[in-house]
Amino acid sequence: MEEGKGVVKHILLAKFKDGISENQIEEHIKGYANLVNIIEPMKSLHWGKDVSIENLHHGFTHVFESTFETKEGLAEYIAHPVHVEFANGFLSSLDKVLVVDFEPTTVNI
């Protein structure tokens, strides 16, 4: 196996509160995506809704995956004032959240 060469993935699983409308969710997603344009170490954001048929989602409905070049870049993103401001509003709209950061590893077979 070949360990990651600096790249870090930031995975956020979310379940929005029942009272949050689809329009509000869409605005949160647009705000999250816009962080890529503002915070240099954040290289990309992908997101989607749970479509699993296994029913192992534990109530999480949305997945957000951000890519950073280094752990230091992720730390810079987390501390960035624009991220802090966004996160305060975003997190207050969530009923559940789970965050995992990892360095992708390639399996050579």
Structure notes:
- It holds the Pfam family Dabb.
- It comes from Lithocarpus litseifolius.
- One of its GO terms (biological process) is pollen tube adhesion.
- Residues 8-102 form the Stress-response A/B barrel domain.
- Homodimer.
- The protein is an alpha+beta fold.
- It has three helices and four strands, in the order E-H-E-E-H-H-E.
- It has helices at residues 22-38, 71-79, 81-92, and strands at 8-16, 42-49, 62-68, 94-102.
- The chain has a four-stranded antiparallel β-sheet.
- Helix 1 packs antiparallel against helix 3.
- It is globular.
The stretches of 5 or more residues where confidence is low (pLDDT under 50) are none
Order of secondary-structure elements: EHEEHHE
In oligomeric terms, what are we looking at? Answer: single chain
Number of helices: 3
Give the proportion of residues in helices. Answer: 25-40%
Give the termini separation: 8 Å
Total DSSP E strands: 4
Task: Indicate the radius of gyration in whole angstroms.
Answer: 15 Å
Average pLDDT works out at 94
Q: Order of strands in the sheet with the most strands?
A: 2-3-1-4
Largest sheet: 4 strands, antiparallel
Overall spatial form: globular
Subunit structure: Homodimer.
Protein name: Stress-response A/B barrel domain-containing protein
Domain Stress-response A/B barrel: 8-102
InterPro entries: Dabb, Dimeric_a/b-barrel, HS1/DABB1-like
